[in-house]
Amino acid sequence: MRNSIWLWLLFLAAFYGVWLLLVIGLDLWGVALEHWPMALSMAIGSYAAGSTPMGGGTVGFPVLVLLFDMPASLGRDFSFAVQSIGMVSASIFILCRRQPLAWAMLRGALIGALVATPAGILFFAPLVPELWVTIAFAVLWGSFGILHLYRLREITAHDHAGDPNCPLDFRVGLLLGAIAGFGAVSVTGVGIDMVIYAALVLLSRVDLKVAIPTSVVIMAFTSVVGVAVKSLAGEWQPGVFGNWLAAAPVVALGAPLGVFVVGLIGRRPTLFVVAVLCVGQFVWACASERATLGAVGIALALLAVVLCLAGFEWLRLLGLRREARRRLRREGGAQVPQNFAVEGAVV
């Protein structure tokens, strides 16, 4: 760690040097101060970004869209911008500390996201109405929160480090990285971290100490891809720069702080609080948009949450079967029968 932590410090020095050049050299201090509420919000968001499978945009998006009544497209673009600093900083910190990562699934997800995210930003996201963006975000993270409220004990009990050369994990990462990059990240600015994390803890039954840092790295990479595409296309939403200018110096340190502190206090309390917040933002989004959604729209949003949870449970059943096979191989036993029962379910 001592031999490589200087790379993270070099990144911080470069970033703060550029930031000071902007606020002092270009006299933009007033712009940063004008958006101080976002800096305060991202102090919490950046901690969550480094300590949980949630990007910083998971806090920034609802703050801008639900609290400040900004367009959902602004929340998405801000997510890209702020995560390209906070989660990149956290990722460099993770790599410098040589924390274990689920490399097989991560490699696949990196390739999938690199190909699909630009396509989604350019061709899919412009077709999605602002309301759908808000509800899609709320559904994704609401279902994620509910999953953790009733599966937290099981998820935090995993101790498998993962196979760095597993072909199945690579293929799963490639597929999910492409789907999440095209369908979730391009629309909301977040989501691939949650999808890859869910696959790791439910399907591969990987320890949180491996799954969460892996989710941080894939979200950081995808955010940088998003920033590059948005910059080349020249399609940034007005207001992103001011909010970024205020929040970036906070998240550059806040996200790595989350990586460090969670190792001291444990992940279960943090994940529980985050899960409650995820469910709360779903309720908040539905309440805020109830006039537009109507009873049918709210019912469809609830149905979407149920479908997401069903998908999570399907992954979990596949993961239980996979874990049983792995255990039998370690013990020198036979393969698991096709209709092997796990915890009362036939898988």
TrEMBL record:
It is found in: Cell membrane; Membrane. It comes from the Bacteria. Keywords: Cell membrane, Membrane, Transmembrane, Transmembrane helix. The chain crosses the membrane at residues 7-32, 44-66, 78-95, 101-124, 131-150, 170-203, 210-229, 241-264, 271-287, 293-319. It is a multi-pass membrane protein. It holds the Pfam family TauE. InterPro entries: TM_pro_TauE-like. One of its GO terms (cellular component) is plasma membrane. Belongs to the 4-toluene sulfonate uptake permease (TSUP) (TC 2.A.102) family. PANTHER family: MEMBRANE TRANSPORTER PROTEIN. This is Probable membrane transporter protein.
